[in-house]
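Could someone model pyridoxal-5'-phosphate with this protein?
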Amino acid sequence: MIYKNSKSFADELDQQDPLKLYRGKFHYPKKENGEDTIYLCGNSLGLQPKSVRSFIEQELVVWEKDGVKGQHGRWEKFHERLAQSSANLVGAKKTEVVVMNALTVNLHFLLISFYQPNRKRNKIIIEKGAFPSDQYAVESQIKLHGFDPKECLIELAPRKGEKTLRTDDILQTIIKTGDELATLIMGGVNYYTGQAFDMKTITEAGQSVGAYVGFDLAHAAGNLNLNLHDWNLDFAAWCTYKYLCAGPGAPSGIFIHERHHDWDGPRFAGWWGQNKQTRFEMGPNFDPILTAEGWQVSNAPVMGMAPLLASMEIFDEIGMESVREKGDKLTGFLEYLLNEKTPNISIITPDERGCQLSLVIPGGKSVFEVITEKGVVCDWREPDVIRIAPHPLFNSYSEIFQFVEILEKSL
Ligand SMILES: Cc1ncc(COP(=O)(O)O)c(C=O)c1O
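Reply:
Sure, complex below.
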């Protein structure tokens, strides 16, 4: 795509944008003067679809009028209404996904199954600079099994002087760790640098040494085209409050490859994972559902899932291919304008990426404060990065143009 450095070009792109009407389906945060902010923070918290209110209201009305009767046939199956959309979103079979709990909770649940260390094979590979919650979860899992994170945790670090990881280096570490590697878990997209990883190749390498391989897709779900089933991941989890716009603390999705569904290894069990035919017989023996649903523990948080139903309706309507196509174009335009107008800024995000660009700016934090004052919503991540993430469903090309002008003047 050939871009031009002009407002009229940005307006032209907006006019041609097949997704332009979707912006109107979201509530857009305002500045004090009532004008729209420039919201470039969909990688942190996606905006509220206007339809969310009616999705929640429907459940409030059922609760109000029917009380516990809402449970029968409706709320007991509520999470099932998200299965097909979640499967489409991550490239999985319907039976391989379920929405439950929150993201870090699910990472723990998945690691209880997919990290089974023994004296020989007890290492976990993670990226250095993974999201801290993942780091804490993994370290606590290692300790839970009586091992020492100092010995068992292998962190993938960029080469000296580089900011991002090379796939070859990841593969080398996997091969070197060999039959000591129990589990590899890393972000599909790194939250700090915005680097997207080659999940297929990494999965293949991890499994070739006998390890389980899983990804935290917090920054990948609703951002990248994913094909988890064909890429053969063992497991994955994602949150739904970022690109997926399901609201603060919205529930998480998990993927478990179908070859594991007949699982008799360790797992945390609860009644919602129980065979649906016998769940309400309240018997003492756990007989798990033979799909990803077997990993559920508790009944569905209906009020938290209702906004996700609203946003997934929008994603279903558009399809991930088109979402990605616009994401790519918007981010490409942002990159082009930054290179044209603000050459002192370094973009540390590599070409393998989704919508986020991570910028290292001379005088970073004070620039961040100035652009925030001017109505740009983005975020600052210590020690030196401003993350900018244009969202294909609610950001426009002219906003990107406006943002780079504001940034240029704030430097
Ligand atoms: C990559 C990543 N992992 C984990 C988390 C933690 O998510 P939660 O608080 O929903 O468990 C986040 C939150 O932003 C994240 O970005």
